[in-house]
Amino acid sequence: MHVPICILCRSPNNNNPEREEAHDGYKTALVQQFNSLYGTEVDDIESWRGLSRALDIFPLPNDLNKAKKNEVNLETAWEQMFKGKFINLVDLVDTENTGQCATQFNTLEELKERS
User: Fold this and answer.
1) Model-level pTM?
2) Exposed, middle or buried by CB within 10 Å (0-12, 13-18, 19+), for 64?
3) CA 9 to chain centre
4) Distance between CA atoms of 49 and 10, rounded to whole angstroms?
5) CA distances from 108 to 85, 86, 92 (A)
6) What share of the chain is helix, strand, coil (3-state, %, to 5)?
């Protein structure tokens, strides 16, 4: 018997094996979709450009342009780009379907309230 994930996620029984299996499958699919859209290599400048577009960060931060020229480490550029930003990963992955940029929140509490 297949039960829709939306019903399973609302189930008050957290020890429900069907719910756990559905939730694990959902998380796996979300990670696979993220990796497909934005890549898995921290040193891939195109992955960073994709994230920048999805988050409406233009122009690319200087550190990213320097990273392309190997003047700066991409992890350093990443820290500058996303420091202090909170993003709903489901929204980030869904940008491909909606055509809208993912919303950025200033605090974790704001993200929790609006997601």
Assistant:
1) 0.68
2) buried
3) 20
4) 36
5) 9, 6, 16
6) 60, 5, 35
**If DSSP states are collapsed to H, E and C, what string results for 26-79?**
HHHHHHHHHHHHHCCCCCCHHHHHHHHHHCCCCCCCHHHHHHHCCCCCHHHHHH
User: 96, 37 in Cβ contact below 8 A?
Assistant: yes
**Residue 23, SS3 per DSSP:** helix
pLDDT, tens digit (0-9, with 9 covering 90-100), for 21-64: 888 999 999 999 999 999 998 777 788 788 888 888 776 655 55
For residues 62 and 19, what is the distance between their CA atoms, to the nearest angstrom?
45
Tell me the residue type at 94.
D
Under a CB-based contact definition with an 8 Å cutoff, are residues 61 and 83 in contact? no
Task: Identify the band that residue 83 occupies on the pLDDT scale cut at 50, 70 and 90.
Answer: confident
Give backbone dihedrals phi and psi of 99, rounded to 5 degrees, phi first.
Answer: 75, 5
